[in-house]
């Protein structure tokens, strides 16, 4: 077999220079995403591309507050991404709840549920700040410290415990079956 | 025997590299049209390396893996039949219908893989892609008929040679009409904007590509690069005169010159596709089917009738 460790610097360079973003706009930060992609702060210079499919995404931008209902989708999307995957949390809401610090319906620490590699403070952060965060994550990929995906694998019990504490045991099945009674009622009415 | 294998390998290498450069050119030119800087030209190569170096991979069964390989293989086979200047290995057999057929096979391979993934978006994209494939057949068929009628042969190589004495195909009115129809069809074959209904980013979440991640997507990128090269090469061969350069004494110089001439023609074909793609919004699938069965069909059929007269 070929020893692929020899090519690791090349792979790291490619990973650094072609981060594909999964277009998952949570909260107000969704507004700050289009200016990053368009002609003023053109992110495609760094080879980044917004991508609607989680299967081919590398970088997951959490752009704003996260409600438990969204967090279920975020966890499922995060687990769908193939392995070297990085999470960047935008703004102060994923960091500590932000202005929703006393809301019953917003997540205070995103890092308890999925591993975050880079936080950007601000409400909302300017596109320059987001680009600074992207530069930071590129450096971290280069020296191998952006290891959120490794931490998620190694400490899966911790993350799963936190997720189950919030949503209750078996939330994936419950979420998938949620609409079945409603659909059955609809069919009976017709 | 060994020489043929070596030649095939070199053609493949050249086509892959130039195809990746074409993908980079598409992204840069689109960015410049939007007043952006755009990625470096080697960006698709980096994307492919990254996708191939993913540490985890998903698969949905045998057909899911096979469809991708099938698409790549069909594209490579199509490339081998198209005359590339003076070098090509199967050009004696490269007739128009075969190449046109082989250039559409990759879409079927992608469809196999997408349908077997069980993702509803992929299924939806596959249906749209098959309808597009059905819609482009009619103008494509008429354009091929016009060419065959005009030159009296189906062989691509003989058509290239005939154009050396008779002038480019697009200088004759019937073939100009066929070329216009074929160029509209190319837009759908590239998956560029007015007819990118099967991929439709933002509308149905990448269509058939939605489940491909990691190595599957990496192989699809390579396939897309070779397909871009093969389709532009086929167009420049049958309509823009190909390239048979005999000006220099040494055969190597002749080969390099003909490759350069072909490259310029291919980039010209590509640029038209990019400019149209950057300024037109997407059709819905019923509009696209109706469009293909109306205007390009009328144009190509007129060309075929004129060629037969």
Automatic annotation (TrEMBL), chain A:
Gene Ontology molecular function: iron-sulfur cluster binding; NADH dehydrogenase (ubiquinone) activity
Top-rank taxon, per record: Archaea
GO BP: aerobic respiration; electron transport coupled proton transport
GO cellular component entries: respiratory chain complex I
Coiled coil: none
Pfam families: Oxidored_q6
All copies of domain NADH:ubiquinone oxidoreductase-like 20kDa subunit, residue ranges: 25-136
Name of protein: NADH-ubiquinone oxidoreductase chain B
Automatic annotation (TrEMBL), chain B:
Protein name per UniProt: Membrane-bound oxidoreductase subunit MbxM
Pfam families associated with the record: NADHdh
Keyword Transmembrane helix among record annotations: yes
Molecular function GO labels: oxidoreductase activity
Transmembrane segments: 6-26, 62-84, 96-117, 129-154, 166-185, 225-250, 256-279, 291-308
InterPro entries named in the record: ComplexI_Subunit1, NADH_UbQ_OxRdtase_su1/FPO
Coiled-coil region: none
Tagged with keyword ATP-binding: no
Top-level taxon in the UniProt lineage: Archaea
Keywords: Membrane, Oxidoreductase, Transmembrane, Transmembrane helix
GO cellular component, one term: plasma membrane
Compartments where located: Membrane
E.C. number(s) listed in UniProt: 1.6.5.11
Membrane topology type: Multi-pass membrane protein
């Amino acid at each position: 077999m070929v020893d692929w460790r020899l090519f690791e610097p090349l792979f790291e360079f490619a990973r650094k220079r072609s981060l594909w973003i999964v277009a998952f706009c949570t909260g107000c930060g969704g507004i700050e995403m289009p200016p990053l992609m368009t002609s003023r702060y053109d992110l495609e210079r760094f080879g980044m591309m917004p991508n609607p499919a989680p299967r081919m995404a590398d970088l997951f931008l959490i752009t704003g507050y996260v409600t438990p209902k969204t967090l279920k989708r975020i966890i499922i999307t995060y687990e769908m991404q193939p392995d070297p995957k990085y999470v960047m949390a935008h703004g102060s809401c994923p960091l500590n709840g932000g202005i929703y610090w006393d809301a019953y319906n917003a997540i205070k620490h995103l890092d308890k549920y999925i591993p975050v590699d880079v936080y950007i403070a601000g409400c909302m952060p300017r596109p320059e700040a987001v680009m600074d965060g992207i530069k930071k994550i590129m450096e971290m990929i280069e020296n191998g410290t952006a290891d959120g995906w490794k931490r998620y694998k190694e400490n899966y019990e911790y993350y799963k415990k936190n997720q189950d504490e919030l949503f209750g045991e078996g939330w994936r099945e419950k979420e998938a079956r949620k609409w079945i009674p409603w659909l059955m009622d609809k069919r009976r009415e017709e | 025997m060994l020489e043929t294998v070596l030649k095939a390998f070199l053609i493949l290498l050249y086509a892959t590299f130039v195809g990746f450069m074409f993908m980079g050119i598409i992204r840069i030119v689109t960015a410049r049209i939007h007043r952006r800087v755009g990625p470096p030209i080697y960006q698709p190569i980096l994307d492919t390396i990254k996708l191939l170096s993913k540490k985890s991979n998903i698969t949905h069964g045998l057909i899911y893996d096979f469809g991708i390989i099938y698409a790549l293989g069909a594209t490579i086979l199509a490339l081998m039949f198209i005359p590339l200047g003076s070098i090509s290995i199967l050009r004696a057999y490269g007739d128009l219908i075969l190449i046109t057929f082989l250039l559409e096979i990759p879409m079927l391979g992608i469809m196999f893989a997408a349908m077997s993934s069980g993702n509803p978006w992929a299924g939806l994209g596959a249906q749209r892609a098959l309808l597009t494939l059905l819609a482009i057949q009619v103008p494509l068929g008429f354009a091929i008929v016009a060419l065959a009628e005009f030159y009296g042969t189906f062989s691509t190589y003989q058509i290239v040679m005939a154009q050396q004495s008779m002038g480019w195909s697009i200088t004759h009115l019937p073939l100009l009409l066929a070329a216009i129809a074929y160029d509209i069809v190319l837009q759908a074959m590239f998956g560029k904007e007015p007819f990118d209904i099967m991929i439709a980013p933002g509308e149905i979440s990448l269509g058939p590509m939605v489940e491909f991640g990691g190595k599957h997507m990496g192989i699809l990128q390579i396939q897309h690069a070779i397909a871009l090269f093969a389709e532009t090469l086929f167009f420049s061969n049958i309509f823009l005169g190909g390239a048979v350069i005999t000006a220099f004494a040494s055969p190597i110089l002749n080969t390099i010159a003909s490759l350069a001439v072909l490259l310029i023609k291919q980039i010209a074909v590509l640029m038209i596709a990019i400019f149209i793609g950057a300024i037109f919004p997407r059709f819905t699938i019923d509009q696209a089917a109706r469009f293909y069965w109306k205007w390009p069909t009328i144009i190509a059929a007129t060309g075929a009738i004129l060629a037969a007269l």
